[in-house]
Each structure stands twice: as structure tokens, then as C-alpha cells.
Amino acid sequence: MVLISWNLQGSKGVDTAAVAEAVRSQRADVLLLQEIQRRQADALAKALGWSVQWAEKHSAPFIPAEGLAVLASTIEQSSVLELRGGPRRSWRRRIAVIAEVTIRGRAFVLADVHLSPGEDDQQRDDEIARLLRFLHTEPWEGRPQAVIGGDFNIPPPAAFVDRLQSGGWQDAWASAPTRVGDGSTNWTQGPRQGRPPTQRLDLIFVPSGCTVLEADVPTDHEKWAVLSDHLPLRVVIAAGGAEEPPL
What we know:
This protein is α+β, with helices and mostly antiparallel strands and 247 residues long. The chain has 6 helices and 13 strands. The strands form 2 sheets. It has a 7-stranded mixed sheet with strand order 3-4-2-1-13-12-10. Strands 5-6-7-8-11-9 form a 6-stranded mixed sheet. The termini are close together.
């Protein structure tokens, strides 16, 4: 399975055609998207010929609601989980979208997250703890262990990373035998042209039953800087040992 996690900064507009072409160039099977509006997610799914599960995170005044989306050729079932409560107008509200997808005849569970920003690492740990508890309830209990990806708003090390690792998940970037780029996916504030991103905020965690074959972040920053303030993180995952082909 070729999986991409990407924060598209939907409130600034999304060039659907350019993003769809970028996704095709990366040969992705699945997208986990953050900060994307519903019409943007629908347009991208239509351009790719895929299914989409979108959920609202928050809706600021005078701006169409932003949320999270999972896109894949086939989505079997999905759930939306509130990770941090609050009014729908508040950017502090946090959610996860969990979806079961079928890739070349094999089922996989994915969890798309966008954790809280700021200095409170405990808040992010609480959000991941809530997600892990939810994955042990119906309809997800007994399904394949989830791949968890998204915008975590802080680079490792962090409390939630320790929680995931103790539960059997591995940081896909850190464990990949082949990597392209340095893993940085996010620009600090200011113009993006002429400088590389410096923050590794976008992460993918893979359960112990899977093997990461490769991970990459685009190195041609100028080309990608016009699409979002984040670069996409791409990982190639095999469902079993490294000798198995990718899903």
C-alpha cells in the first residue's frame, strides 16, 4: 500500500487538478488529508475516481468548514471520533476519521488525525489515548490494527509517540530502510519560496503486523510550496514481512 498524509491548508484554497496530478505522480493508493473543505475533498475524489469520507473539524465564521478526509478507491466503513471537545466554531476542536479500505483485495484500517497545537503535550497524548481506546470498540475491535497518520503538530519525541510505540506502533519514517528527504514537512510562518521546510509535524505510525519498505518527502520544495504550507509524507507499506510485496 502506498499511503500519503498531507495537510492541504484548505482555507487558502486547493488547486484540485494540481493536487490530483501530484497524487498520481506519487502512485498513491490512499490519502489521509487534513485542513480540507468538503467541496475540495469531493472534487479531489472525483478527479482521482476514488471514494471519500470527509468529516468536519470546525467551521470558523465566513469560511467553509475544514475537516479531515480519507480517500481511496474503495472505503468499506468509517467512523468519526471527537478527540477534543468544543464548539463547532472553535479551531481547538479535534477529530479523527477512521476508515476501512480495500487495496488490491486486502482490508486495511486507517486513522486520520490532526492533533492539538501548542505546548501542552499532555493534550496530544490524551487525544491519542482516546483514539486507541476507540479502536478497541465496535466496529473496529477485531479488525486489522490501524495505521495512524496525519498532522501531529509536534515532532518526535513526544508523550503520544511513547504511547504508540509501547502499544506496538512504529514511526514509519524512522523505521523505513529507504528514505528520500530529511522528513521535514512543514514551513514556519512566512514566505515558502526560496527556503525548505524545517518541521517534521506530519507522521505515520504503522502497527507491528506491517513492514515499512520506504518513506519519502519531496525534495523539490519550490514545486510543492505553491500547493500547501505542508509537504506530503509518502510511505510504502507491506502487510507482512519485508519479503512480501506492497499491498
